[in-house]
Amino acid sequence: MKDGKDWVLNGTKAWATNAGTADLMMIMVRTDQPNARRGAKGISTFIVPTDSKGYKPAKPEDKMGLRASNTAGIELTDLRLPAAHMLGDEGMGFVYAMEASTPEGWGSGRRASDRAARAGALAAVLRRAQAVREADP
């Protein structure tokens, strides 16, 4: 929910990779209004510092396999973020994610080039996240 220039996030997420160990999380949040749902164009992505007041990871899941990463739920309670923590345009987070994940890249030789492109995108996100953290008072 928008509050002036800030966003106040509330809700839960299940099965978040590194929820209890990461310094930053990229979290998709519905930012459209309950009485005016916009589908895929109603979801925004935020960079969330995990030391923010209102961020609470749950107990790590006891998984059968793939135990190399911490996986847990997340609870967001009145977590306040400046508008600069939103990645891209409001309501476009899910659209951006789908544009970056194409069927052509799922199982072909193109996978390596897709990974390289995503690594470049990830580097840009990390630079943006660092700038956001440095700009916060």
Report on this model:
The chain has two helices and seven strands, in the order βββββββαα. It is an alpha+beta fold and 137 residues long. It has one domain (2-135): Butyryl-CoA Dehydrogenase, subunit A, domain 2 (Beta Barrel). The strands form two sheets. A four-stranded antiparallel beta sheet has the order 1-2-6-5, with no helix packed on it. A three-stranded antiparallel beta sheet has the order 3-4-7. It has helices at 93-100, 111-135, and strands spanning 2-3, 6-17, 24-30, 43-49, 55-57, 71-82, 86-87. Helices cover 24% and strands 33% of the residues. The chain is globular, with a radius of gyration of 16 Å.
Quick description:
By secondary structure, the protein is an alpha+beta fold. It has helices at 93-100, 111-135; strands at residues 2-3, 6-17, 24-30, 43-49, 55-57, 71-82, 86-87.
Defining traits:
3-stranded antiparallel β-sheet, 7 strands, globular, alpha+beta, 137 residues
* CATH architecture name: Beta Barrel
Counted by DSSP, the helix tally is 2
Structural class: alpha+beta
Distance between the termini: 22 Å
Low-confidence spans: pLDDT under 50, at least 5 residues? none
Work out the radius of gyration. 16 Å
Strand order of the largest sheet: 1-2-6-5
Biggest β-sheet, characterized?
4 strands, antiparallel
Run of helices and strands: EEEEEEEHH
Counting structural domains, the number is 1
Helix content: 10-25%
CATH overall fold name: Butyryl-CoA Dehydrogenase, subunit A, domain 2
* Global morphology: globular
CATH superfamily name?
Butyryl-CoA Dehydrogenase, subunit A, domain 2
Mean pLDDT: 82
**Strand residues, percent:** 25-35%
CATH class equals Mainly Beta
